[in-house]
Amino acid sequence: MIGWLALVVSGAAVAYAWKLQQELQTATRRLDRYNRALFDANDEIRKVREDLTAALAQVRAESRLPSGAPVRFTPQMKVRDALTVHPQAEQILAAFHLGGCNSCAVDPNDTLTDICREHERDLAQLLQNLNLLTVAPKGANGPLAVIKVPNVELSF
Questions:
Q1: How far does CA 19 lie from the centroid of its chain?
Q2: pTM of the model
Q3: Phi, psi of 4 (to 5 degrees)
Q4: How far is residue 82 CA from its own chain's centroid?
Q5: What is the rounded distance in angstroms from the CA atom of residue 121 to the CA atom of residue 124?
């Protein structure tokens, strides 16, 4: 009699364990689905933030254009803003090894002064070369035009 009772109790325990396993699998599938949705939402938020930051930098650059006059690059200008002022600013920064590769990467929220100090570059020379980009060639339709990137010589 005790053997039969033990058999029934163990059978009930196995059935209960099987039921818990099924519920655990269901909960795991739901959690995976929620995690994927959360990851996708986080990815979308990151993209929106990047777009917003780029749009804000563009608005900052455009707000510095009084009556169509070209923007002057300043030491306090953020790298992100400098990159929106002229399409070739990135090439000038790369020529100074201020962005473009892992060893000279810069934070877009740093100012030009900060990155020059951090990477031991001449700020005046950088600003001079960047400001050459904003000079409108004679006969150009707009204040900014794509021009030949000036040769930059660095001595280390």
A1: 47
A2: 0.52
A3: -65, -40
A4: 15
A5: 9
Q: Return the closest-CA partner of residue 152 out of 87, 86, 82, 95.
A: 95
* Cα–Cα dist 118/109, whole Å: 14
Cα diameter, the chain: 108
Q: How far is the C-alpha of 97 from the C-alpha of 103, rounded, in Å?
A: 9
pLDDT in tens, the chain (156 residues): 888 989 999 999 999 999 999 999 999 999 999 999 999 999 999 999 988 887 877 776 666 555 556 678 889 988 888 888 777 888 888 888 887 666 778 888 889 999 999 888 899 999 988 888 776 555 555 444 444 555 555 555
CA 68, CA 62: separation in Å to the nearest integer? 9
Residue with tokens 């060639």: 137
The single-letter code of the amino acid at 88 is Q
Where exactly are the structural domains of the chain?
Answer: 1-63, 68-132
**DSSP assignment string, 34-95:** HHHHHHHHHHHHHHHHHHHHHHHHHHHHHHT-GGGPPPPP-TT-BHHHHHHH-TTHHHHHHH
CATH architecture assignment, domain 68-132: Orthogonal Bundle (1.10)
114 contacts 143 by C-beta, under 8 angstroms: no
